Amino acid sequence: MPSTDRCAELASPSYGNLGLSVVILVGILVSYLPQHHRIVRRRSSEGISPYFVLLGTTSGTCAFANILVLPTSRMDLGCCKVVSGFECFSALLGIAQVGVQWLCFSVILLLFLVYFPRATPLSPPKPAGSHPTYRTALTVTLVCVVHAAITFIISLSFVLLRPSSTATLANILGILATILASIQYFPQLYTTWQLKAVGSLSIPMMLIQTPGSFLWAWSLAARLGSSGWSAWGVYLVTGCLQGSVLSLGIYYEVLKRKNPTKTKVNGGAGNGGVLETNGAPAETESDDEGRHVVEGGDVEQGRDDERTALLRNER
Hints:
Blueprint: H1 4-10, H2 15-42, H3 50-69, H4 71-79, H5 85-91, H6 93-114, H7 134-161, H8 166-195, H9 203-224, H10 229-258, E1 274-277, E2 280-286, E3 292-294, H11 302-314
Antiparallel strand pairs: 1-2, 2-3
Helix pairs in contact: 2-6, 2-9, 3-6, 3-7, 3-8, 6-7, 8-10, 9-10
């Protein structure tokens, strides 16, 4: 049975908090679009650490399961039977926010696997141990899927069989989400530092999400109170760590623009190759005709040279 006091509270929503919650929900969705677009546009997920994807997806799964099993969230769901549709929508915005964030990061997992750089005739295999392999990407995807299935089965079992223990389960899931989120960005910091470039990692996404994490934590705290610390605490941690990755990425982007160089592709680019520029890798992309383009630079000269040679022969 839903709490009468809780339902009465939801029947008089704060329009200020409601407006902020809607903005955050839309902001979460919009913030991930630059990352999805960048991977698809470059046709490569190079530069994104597989362990960053693994930890981020599993952290998001724990956070989503956490807010679903929280007693406060389940009371809000129960109150939807007695309050209006608008008031129910307002009450469930916190759940929707976490759900959309989990879904958007799951899309990154999918794109990471689909566009993972693989060896082609133009891009021979890289030395073992120097870069993650396609097998690593498959393993990360499988672990994330199995983890999500187990997490939601356990959560559903507690809700149906041991509803009095869901608060404890929610806290455990929240702590797991916070721990995973706390270490999530360290593999990405290392990968970005090693490549001396952001690769397929989107700076606009991080520019939106870093301040958004703190705003989101405040919004959830206002909605759930101190008892919901396990739901909003994770976003305080991720905001700080994502800001570190953002700072490192901007640093390398500034360096790249201060010292622009052009050189040939080292062994081909495959799904978005890597250039060697003064000892540091730079990013390349493929245009619609399969030619390699240095990001912010010119088209690779190979085909132009072929056309020039043909014209000379005709003369």
